[in-house]
Design goal:
The relative contact order is 0.13. This protein is mainly alpha-helical and 124 residues long.
Length: 124
């Protein structure tokens, strides 16, 4: 696909360039493969890194090697593809129940969650 067409598709999703969308899709594909092979999602290091988008300051606080940033990307894209989807609300409910073992060996921070993310415009 030529770059002009890639950029046009990316613009329809509110992104700057087709290369940005391409990298997002690569990262999401990587996480899909992690999940499909029943690997743990909470501590995975994302190898297909995408830069945080510049259009929202909240994103700058996210670690792009942690899964939560890519769940934000999913939410961003899904809000445009299927605005009536309840996926975002179900994700928030699931994260509210994030199990933390007694020894605190695993925390929500390991997943990439940051304080106050639930109140971001992306998730409301």
């Amino acid at each position: 696909m030529n770059i002009k067409d890639q950029d046009a598709i990316a613009a329809s999703y509110g992104l700057g360039t087709g290369r940005e969308l391409e990298q997002w899709l690569r990262s999401l594909s990587y996480l899909r493969n992690v999940a499909a092979h029943h690997s743990r999602m909470w501590n995975v290091n994302v190898l297909e890194l995408s830069p945080a988008p510049q259009f929202d300051q909240n994103w700058q606080s996210l670690a792009n090697a942690r899964p939560f940033m890519y769940f934000c990307i999913m939410r961003f894209l899904l809000a445009r593809i299927s605005p009536n989807s309840s996926w975002g609300e179900r994700f928030k409910a699931l994260m509210a129940e994030f199990p933390v073992p007694a020894n605190k060996a695993v925390t929500a921070t390991d997943f990439g969650l940051v304080q106050g993310w639930e109140g971001w415009p992306l998730w409301t």
